[in-house]
């Protein structure tokens, strides 16, 4: 048997190491994700459907959540599943000094839509982890890859569950992107895509009320507001060469978490009373009632109360 040249051996070792890294490394979140992406999405999707985003429909939608595991709004199974998916596809450790340099001149806005129906950020009391682009009837609903990359996930969470049909791409530089609520996909796991290649057709699957694309970006496990990179209204980008620093992303995330921590909410369960909930949060019944504009002592299961 012929011996391999040392350089070849090194190359092979590197490839194996890289493959193992990409496949098996589950990168822990440095910042706890206490808020549901899906529900956040649902809130704004109500807006998509033409409803007033501040209408009581928001709360009603959250009351429909069946899970309730504690005083904080609990993550749904689907959320955990998606978070695991996204973590599994993160291609590197969270390194606060890491930088992502994107040549935006080769990037594509993933949809023809120029209508941001919901931005990234806090919706009521949860994080909406992506940008929603409304898709109207008659419009081209083709969804394309924002950057060149490899398909790492093609999944269907159900017609009315979670993100419905979604696709995750790994762009090899620590960046992953997610495209959700698709009507259908045209890619398979392992496919290599160029920026602008078709992923599928946008739709209304999962917990979505009105056809739209939910688009997420993550760098080394930390979310990026896609609007800091893309100018969705114009169908273009902000800077030809965009540098994203992990440290900045972590700082922004920290601010969101701080803001969220200010407003803690509790979903009333059967058998609860105001006194019990007030005790749980270390506040008086009077304060609890004031925070929620309650006149009497009546609360009902499923009702969402602000508790701080
Ligand atoms: Zn969304």
Written account of the structure:
The protein is of the alpha+beta class and 308 residues long. It folds into two domains: 37-262, Glucose Permease (Domain IIA), CATH 2.70.70.10; 265-306, LysM domain (Membrane-bound Lytic Murein Transglycosylase D, Chain A). It has helices spanning 6-24, 37-48, 57-63, 77-89, 246-262, 274-281, 285-291, and strands spanning 99-103, 116-118, 121-123, 126-128, 131-134, 142-144, 149-156, 165-170, 175-185, 192-193, 198-202, 212-219, 222-224, 230-231, 236-237, 241-245, 265-267, 304-306. The strands form five sheets. Strands 2, 5, 6, 7, 8, 9, 10, 11, 12 and 13 form a ten-stranded antiparallel sheet that branches. A two-stranded antiparallel ribbon has the order 1-16. It has a two-stranded antiparallel ribbon with strand order 3-4. β7 (149-156) and β8 (165-170) form a beta hairpin. Mean pLDDT is 77; it is low at 6-76. Bound molecules: zinc ion (ZN).
